[in-house]
Amino acid sequence: MDATLQALRGLVPRELQNPRVGIICGSGLSGLAASLRQSVLVSYAELPGFVQSTVPGHKSSLAFGLMGSGAGVPVVAMLGRFHPYEGHKLSSVVYPVRVMAKMGVKNIIITNAAGALNPELTVGTIVVVHDHIALPNLTGMNPLLGPQTDPSLPRFLPLSDAYSRLLRKLVFRAAHDLSIERDALAEGTYAWVSGPTYETAAEGRFLRAAGADVVGMSTVPEVLAAREEGMNVLVLSLVTNAVVIPASYQSVRDEFEAEIAGVSTKTVVEEVVSHEEVLALGRLKGDLMKSLVEKVLDLLPSNTQQ
Ligand SMILES: O=P(O)(O)O[C@H]1O[C@H](CO)[C@@H](O)[C@H]1O
Ligand SMILES: Nc1nc2[nH]cnc2c(=O)[nH]1
Prior knowledge:
Elements: H1 2-11, E1 21-25, E2 37-43, E3 61-67, E4 73-79, H2 90-102, E5 107-116, E6 126-134, H3 135-138, H4 165-177, E7 185-192, H5 201-209, E8 214-216, H6 220-228, E9 232-242, H7 252-260, H8 275-299
Parallel strand pairs: 1-4, 1-5, 5-9, 6-7, 7-8
Antiparallel strand pairs: 2-3, 3-4, 5-8, 6-9
Helix pairs in contact: 2-6, 4-8
C-alpha cells in the first residue's frame, strides 16, 4: 500500500491528491469520466499492487480531476475494474477501493452493467441498488475472508445498511432536478455471480425467485471493501439486457412428436445475450449516467462523512 500511495504522490498534482469521491466505471461506462476537469490519467501499470483489466469496454487507468459544476468536486475514477473471472484474486479486485480509502475518499459511486431479472425493468433503466444477494459470499468467496488488512477495521461487518440511504435519495433528487423521466430510474436488489458465463433460464428464475432484480459479475466485492473502509456507498446498475426467463419450458419431445405426426410446429428461437450488446447499451446510456453522477456530486452535502 505504501508503495502505491508513494507512486500516486509522484504522479498526481498535489491539489488532486485528496479526492472526496471515488467512482468505478462499469462495462462501457468509462465515458463517465469524460467531463473531468484538470484531469490526470495514471495507468494501472504504473501503480504497484494494481493488476490490469482484460475485459473489452474496460480501460486500465485511474483518472483524477474535478467533476460537477462550479469549483467541482475532486474525484478519482477507475476507468476499468477487475473481476474475479479474469483470474484476479479477490484482494486484487478490491485493492483500488482500499487505495481510494487511504487517499481520503469518503463516498464511492460504483456503476455496472447488469441483466434484468425483474420483468418490469426495461433495457436502459438505471437501477439504484438498495441491497444485494451474493451467492459467492455465502459460499466462501468473500473478499473479506482471511487475515484482516487492517486490524482497526471491523471483523464482522454488518451489511443491512450497506447502501447509503442519503446517497440513494440524492439520485432521485438529481433526476428530478434534471427533469429525467420517472421511468428512467428504478430501485432494486443486485445479485452477484462469478461469471463469466451468463445465466441459464433456470438460474435466472432461481435468482429472481430469491428476490434479485438485476444480476452482474462485479460490484459486491467493491461494496464490501468500501463499507469495511467506512465509506458511503452508492451503486447504479445500468440494465443492458434482459435475462431470458421463458415462462415455461417448450418440450422438444412434443415438438418432435408433432413433427413425425406431420403437424406443423413453431421453431423456438432461443435469445442469447452478448457482451457487445452490453457495451452498445453502455454507449447509448453513458450520457444519462454521466449527467446523473455529475448532479449527485453537485448535491452532495459538503460534510458527508457518515
Ligand atoms: O459489472 P461490469 O464490470 O459493469 O460488467 C458486466 O458486463 C460484463 C458482461 O457483459 C460482466 O463483467 C458484468 O459484470
Ligand atoms: N451475470 C450477468 N452479468 C451481466 N452483465 C450485463 N448483463 C449481464 C447478465 O445478463 N448477466
